[in-house]
Amino acid sequence: MASLFKKVKDKLRGMFLSGILVVVPLILTYVVLRFLFKSIDGILSPHLERVFGYTVPGLGIITTVLIILLTGFFTRSLVGGTLYKSGDRLLARLPIIRVVYLAAKRLIEAITLPHNHTFKQVVLIEYPRKGAYAMGFATTRIDLEQEFHDKTNLIGVFIPSTPAPVSGIVIFVPVDDVIPLDISVEEGLKLIVSGGIVSPPVVRRKENGAIEEAEVSYASGQSA
Questions:
Q1: E strand or H helix at 84, and its extent?
Q2: Is residue 215's pLDDT more than 60?
Q3: What pTM, to 2 d.p., does this model score?
Q4: Do 218 and 189 lie in a common domain?
Q5: 8-state DSSP, 212
Q6: Are residues 64 and 120 located together in one domain of the fold?
Q7: Per 3-state DSSP, what percentage of the chain is helix, strand, and coil (rounded to 5)?
Q8: Both 46 and 14 in a single domain?
Q9: Rounded-to-integer distance, Cα 148 and Cα 140, Å
Q10: Is 42:60 a contact under the CB 8 Å cutoff?
Q11: What's the total number of domains in the chain?
Q12: Which residues of 185-223 are buried (b: 16+ CB within 10 A; e: fewer)?
């Protein structure tokens, strides 16, 4: 009887795990796509509704995708590439606008192009409390000057949201409290987007303990 119960339990456990492997990725994909659909569709839908006089679900996102594709095609041409570079330099010099534009551009590059080394290091920090850890990406190093000219060396850590990593929070942590991990930025992004489901079996601290910062320049917002 005990042997039969164990066989049934093992069989159900195997079926459950197989189901998880199929269902969970589909659910996560649906959640991310729904978030993107509602966000992007909501940008143009009100304007298109005024033009056509009625609502067409999904028309906003289709139009947005077409605009993005046409823009990408245009910027790859000689004339379009020249105009883009000129416009990019102009926006990078305008007060107030440059702050938002450069920050948004760098963040999107870091999230969508993990191989461009904008984020160079995946790290762990104790957050939101002692003994609990959050995964993020090392951004930049700053010195916090306090009383009597004492300085504390801090590392900026960007902690993306799940499942949409284009938003999140930035926390500045003392260098000694940051744990550099021996995994790639792409693996870190997969882990965060999947809610921790898609992760390496073992996450190790980087042997040399060095923290690689993002390649950014505060003055220009361009890669170092």
A1: helix 78-91
A2: no
A3: 0.54
A4: yes
A5: P
A6: no
A7: 50, 15, 30
A8: yes
A9: 24
A10: yes
A11: 2
A12: bebbbbbbbbeeeebeeebeebeeeebebbebeeeeeee
For residue 104, give the 3-state DSSP assignment.
Answer: helix
Strand runs labelled E in 9-98: none
Q: Token digits for 170?
A: 């930035």
pLDDT tens figures, 26-42? 776 677 667 767 776 67
Report the alpha-carbon distance of residue 163 to residue 190 in Å, rounded: 10
* pLDDT tens profile 124-183: 999 988 889 999 988 888 888 877 777 888 998 989 887 767 778 889 999 889 999 988
d(CA 35, CA 164) in angstroms, rounded, equals: 8
Q: How far is CA 122 from the centre of its chain?
A: 12
Separation CA 94–CA 73 (nearest Å): 26
Q: Are residues 49 and 114 in the same domain?
A: no
- Are residue 64 and residue 93 in the same domain, yes or no? no
Tokens 């190093």 identify what position? Answer: 141
Q: Which of 215, 216, 221 is nearest to 89 (CA)?
A: 221
Arithmetic mean of pLDDT, 7-28: 73
Range of the domain at 190: 88-224
Which residue, 55, 76, 97, sits at the end of a domain? 76
Task: Report the chain's mean pLDDT, rounded to a whole number.
Answer: 76
